[in-house]
Specification:
Helices cover about 15% and strands about 60% of the residues. About 20% of the residues are buried. By secondary structure, it is mainly beta.
Length: about 200
């Protein structure tokens, strides 16, 4: 058999192997684009329940949109304050929205994002003059936070377990309240951490 004929006969086989090897290097397309998970810490105090959806993907780049809600209580509230205003346990809550960018192949990913969180917290203030209680009132704090995050995300393209862990730098935080003697406050940088456990489907 002539060498040229041998090369031509092997060409389809070589093409098949090269195409298969190239396909294995490409990131697998995500078919399960929805995730629900519980996060401890992170964008709001305490625990939060979150849902995100993959709204864009191209090769190893994915974009996710997230919404969540949290509920928590502040431990240092006194029984006197709770009974005074009929608040019982005075449950506080938070709301979360965020857009994240996820980069990686197969199951392991780098994740970063930017979001906004709102928190509603109830507090109580005592005002004394010469040791005598002159005022005792309920304060509602409205927190507005611009938050970023950077961390690790484990998620299979075919769905299943979701694990997240990372740092959550708070870029700007504003607290507005209805108190008579307290002014509104601004904070321009803070750092927290969070971990998440959930499921993609």
């Amino acid at each position: 058999m002539k060498p040229s004929v041998t090369i031509l006969s092997c060409f389809p086989l070589l093409l098949l192997f090269s195409t298969s090897a190239y396909a294995q290097r490409l990131p697998e397309e995500f078919t399960k684009k929805n995730s629900i998970y519980v996060e401890a810490g992170g964008l709001t105090p305490g625990y939060s329940l979150n849902y995100d959806r993959m709204v864009f993907q191209r090769n190893s780049l994915k974009v996710l949109a997230r919404a969540g809600v949290s509920a928590f209580t502040v431990r240092n509230r006194t029984r006197q304050a709770l009974s005074e205003f009929g608040d019982k346990r005075a449950l506080d809550y938070g709301l979360i929205s965020e857009v994240s960018v996820v980069m990686g192949k197969r199951n392991h990913h780098f994740e970063t994002g930017l979001g906004y969180s709102y928190s509603n917290t109830v507090g109580y203030h005592k005002r004394k003059e010469n040791g005598v209680l002159t005022d005792f009132y309920r304060i509602v704090f409205h927190g507005h936070h611009l938050v970023s995050h950077i961390g690790y995300r484990y998620q299979k393209p075919s769905g299943g377990l979701v694990l997240r862990a990372g740092l959550k730098p708070v870029l700007i935080s504003k607290s507005v309240n209805n108190a008579k003697y307290l002014s509104n406050s601004y904070n321009f940088f803070d750092l927290s951490a969070g971990v998440s456990l959930g499921w993609s489907f």
